[in-house]
Amino acid sequence: MSMLLYNDKLKKINSAYLSWKDTKKLATTISTHKILLHHTYPSVFFQEPSDQDFDLAKKHNIKTISSRENIGIANAFIQLVNYAINQKLEYFIFLQNDFEITENANKSLKFISTCIDIIDSGKADLIHMLSANNPGSPMWCWKDRGIVDKNSRRKLESRFWQNPANVYPEQIKQEKIGVDTWYFTDSKNQNWTNMPCICRTQFLKDFVLPTLEQNKEANHYSGFEKVMAGFLPWHRHLHKIAASSSGIFTHCGHRKNKQ
Q1: Residue 6 pLDDT > 70
Q2: What is the CATH number of the domain that holds 104?
Q3: Is the peptide bond before 138 cis (omega within 30 degrees of 0)?
Q4: Domains in the chain, number
Q5: 53 vs 23: CA distance, rounded Å
Q6: Confidence (pTM)
Q7: What pLDDT shows up at residue 54?
Q8: In-domain check, residue 57
Q9: Which domain holds residue 187?
């Protein structure tokens, strides 16, 4: 595919950020996101925003949505997805304010473009984008390291410490695409994620928003973790395809920035 066509598709991506009371952390993060700011359509949902938050978004031409109170990850996510739907943005990258891009611009652009190709081909419905070599921290899946469990819901995430296709050959399929090794699995083998991921906006509209809408009032201040009681059984039986490969994002959740 030509770079011109790639750029056309990248402009149909909503790079959607969540941020809560940490302007400097977001500023540090988006300083590594120049390819997203320049090639995609960025938006941010601010929880309890400050004037500095709005100034930062304006400086980088990021569409702003906000709430004066903390309405939680799930509720903010719903608003970001609805914004992408209203703007007719075809793809959606979910981000928070502490996921930095740690790969160079050329590799990052190629990875995002490959993600779009894979989604368009029907090989995957949702792609995890956390770096395999530098995932960062905290990483809650590490507690399962060394455990081989055929009932595990973290089979795809186990790529951070092993080749999951070798350990779970019946559930994980491996394929070489370009220079990267990719892993594919049914959603029953991998929990939903609030780490960076990309999918079609229509996928979120059709399959994710209805479930989140049913749970949002009972979990007003919670993130996705607290919605899982109703969400995970649905996700496991959806039988959509999740994928992952080298990735480009690093979780810098332990980095502290003073306002």
Answers
A1: no
A2: 3.90.550.10
A3: yes
A4: 1
A5: 6
A6: 0.90
A7: 97
A8: yes
A9: 3-143+151-250
